[in-house]
């Protein structure tokens, strides 16, 4: 029986909004994300041959570095047709060093598939990406992968999903095993569909296309048919009771017959979709992607339970001019400012394609984006024509005429020196293919930008010869445009270029790409921790001015002062809340524009424009002028402080007053003044009035009871950690969800599992493990994993998340400077 045609229907693209799914694949490293994506492509008919991560021929891992290392480094987009649905799918990296790739992908997605390793269960990075999705209100379905492997434990993994991720679940299918008499083991060969009441038995060593679909009432020939039927009845009852809390139709339908098996399947599907989108319940699927088992039901689950763009969360939109209403219409999608002709697209990724040049990935939130349209980049104010529109198939673009609301695609740019960066918002008129006809509020509206995590490590780069400098700079510009989580600055004393990133692997990959893919000739220094500098006392205001003979009406002037705070972003909360003129820059530096600090002629112009008395007729918008000032301040703080020449962190820059000529057409002189003023302010301070700041990490170490004492002692002494809690692994769940999650995990109905039979008891999600939570300097955690494995005989694991920057003590300052 051909499984695709009989069960899943034809493979056609849907055109309606309700047929679009924008999803991502998220997981811990090595859970099988790319392998699962490859199977989805194959079963949809998008590729004719199965790729393999180990062979280096998958569609989404197309970079040479990815194929050589066998890991996903950057997110990759593909569009998959499935059963008249169009699934826009983004395969994301699993390693924590590439968390920004996950963040910017989640930013444009409506739902996610969370993949778990059935042997490892819910791992540290799984919890991290799960939380990232939940923080963005993105619903998820879970796929328990690798059910064919020795040690796979379906029931343990389900219990961990409930306990560690603190969520209710509904099992959509369960694993089916046959007893191998030769090896005296259970072999995973299929899945049992709880809602349809069928066994989907896959042929072994097959590509997964030919599947035997057996109704449960025809299972009598199988020795375990009675147990399978009991499991299905038990789990269908559990699903109905869970979903009945969110949909009264299920309760009404059950009361008509009082038979759980007679509740219509379509009602169960609709109720589960509703509960999934509201994030009350998570559907659970299982399979083995490598063995080609269970991927098609997962794709059905994506179509059935994850939201379309008309059901997803509405985006956050703001405008400096006025509030912008946003609403979601189930049929037409997102409507912004009540204008059906307003097209708003969000840029979330930039790549350099070997034949197409610079390509920008966008999500269209409202309207229709058409090729050759004239758009406004509301972040920069630039107006320019875009070129062709495309959808991506890994690294292969396919041209399309337009991108409708809710779709993800790629655009090229026709105009030189016009760029679109990650986080930019593009607007245009759907019908006129330009910004003509849009309201002035619409020309300046922005979607919420993407937050870029701070870099933790740095490495020095030195061109091999003076002639290689230009090539290195060009390669770095390309790399930074593609990955904004990388940072570059030049050390003023040594002249070395310093590249900073999220982790040691991140920098290793970045320098490999610079050398091998982009052709940069350079010497690479050793990896260093990213220390910063800050000041310990405020400076007095510094005023700088300059006369420019090119302008007749006025001069350039700025007055500013410096202060600092402890280092975490939340420490600035009161300032940002109470001051409309406060802007947070990179390195947690805060700029505060004091009230009426602008030139009088600009203040008057702003008031008249806001009243509608006149249009803005100056050569630069107020927003562009302020952005220039902000970028100049940011660059000036990068130059470094007096302790070690490191960039400044957790600074408050107060702009008391600034002036520009009334007949200005550029403000380069003001940029120069800003740098002079900040340099003078920092120069007022002695070394004793400044100090270093170091990155501090929140660490969670997972160990068995027997290793707890040894690990805790090592953390407190060798790692300089402040241990603040030691809990059962389950008890690390947030307190408000702890009690019901723990009880539900222990008592949730589950099928008979060979892993439970082998051990003689059901698999507990707790199993005598502890989690030690601590705060520790990043410096002390370098090389920690081998030490932890040694202390725990290979059974320990840990997760580490950036907490903030902390001022170092005088004792640690001497040690760090001596290094």
Describe the structure.
- The protein is an alpha+beta fold.
- It has 22 helices and 39 strands.
- The strands form nine sheets. Strands 2-3-1-4-5-11-6 form a seven-stranded mixed sheet, sandwiched between helices.
- Strand 13 and strand 14 form a beta hairpin.
- It is globular and about 95 Å long.
- About 45% of the residues are buried.
- The N terminus is likely disordered.
**Spatial strand order of the main sheet:** 2-3-1-4-5-11-6
The strand count comes to 39
Fraction of residues in helix: 25-40%
End-to-end distance, in Å?
A: 68 Å
Major pleated sheet: 7 strands, mixed
Query: What is the tally of helical segments?
Result: 22
Q: Which structural class is indicated by helix and strand composition?
A: alpha+beta
Radius of gyration: 29 Å
Dominant shape: globular
Tell me which CATH architecture of the largest domain applies here: 3-Layer(aba) Sandwich
Q: What is the CATH H-level superfamily of the largest domain?
A: P-loop containing nucleotide triphosphate hydrolases
CATH topology of the largest domain: Rossmann fold
Mean pLDDT over all positions? 84
Question: Strand-residue fraction?
Answer: 25-35%
Poorly predicted ranges (pLDDT <50, ≥5 residues)?
1-14, 568-579
Give the count of structural domains.
Answer: 5
CATH class descriptor name of the largest domain: Alpha Beta
